[in-house]
Amino acid sequence: MSKKNIVQLNNQYIQDENQKTRYEEAEASKRHRLMGIIMLFVILLFILPTFNLVESYRSIQSNKKEIAKLNKEYKALSEKTTKEQALAKSLQDTTYIEKYARAKYYLSKDGETIYLVPGLLPK
């Protein structure tokens, strides 16, 4: 086998073509760099609002839990208030006051004997 030597011509046309190729590669590199910077900027623009959106969602969920808890407390306090109002209304009656004092505080009139019966305590 014989070796063949390939020699590239080094004339003005080849030099111009090589320079043109280097220029096109440099332009492509600049475009790629610019597109990379633009993509990074776009990603940052989407990430920041996403964090705010997630934080808002967490805040809304915690507010919903707190609302549910406060509604339970409100119902319990409403029932307690209704019972207290009924007791206050009942305590305006003198006979009820006497029964209540005898049952709850074991008060008696002179000469009376008190016998405790469970379940008869006025509420």
TrEMBL record:
<dbReference type="InterPro" id="IPR039076">
    <property type="entry name" value="DivIC"/>
</dbReference>
<keyword id="KW-0132">Cell division</keyword>
<dbReference type="GO" id="GO:0051301">
    <property type="term" value="P:cell division"/>
</dbReference>
<keyword id="KW-1133">Transmembrane helix</keyword>
<keyword id="KW-0472">Membrane</keyword>
<keyword id="KW-0131">Cell cycle</keyword>
<keyword id="KW-0812">Transmembrane</keyword>
<dbReference type="InterPro" id="IPR007060">
    <property type="entry name" value="FtsL/DivIC"/>
</dbReference>
<keyword id="KW-0175">Coiled coil</keyword>
<protein>
    <submittedName>
        <fullName>Cell division protein DivIC (FtsB), stabilizes FtsL against RasP cleavage</fullName>
    </submittedName>
</protein>
<dbReference type="Pfam" id="PF04977">
    <property type="entry name" value="DivIC"/>
</dbReference>
<feature type="coiled-coil region">
    <location>
        <begin position="60"/>
        <end position="87"/>
    </location>
</feature>
<feature type="transmembrane region" description="Helical">
    <location>
        <begin position="34"/>
        <end position="54"/>
    </location>
</feature>
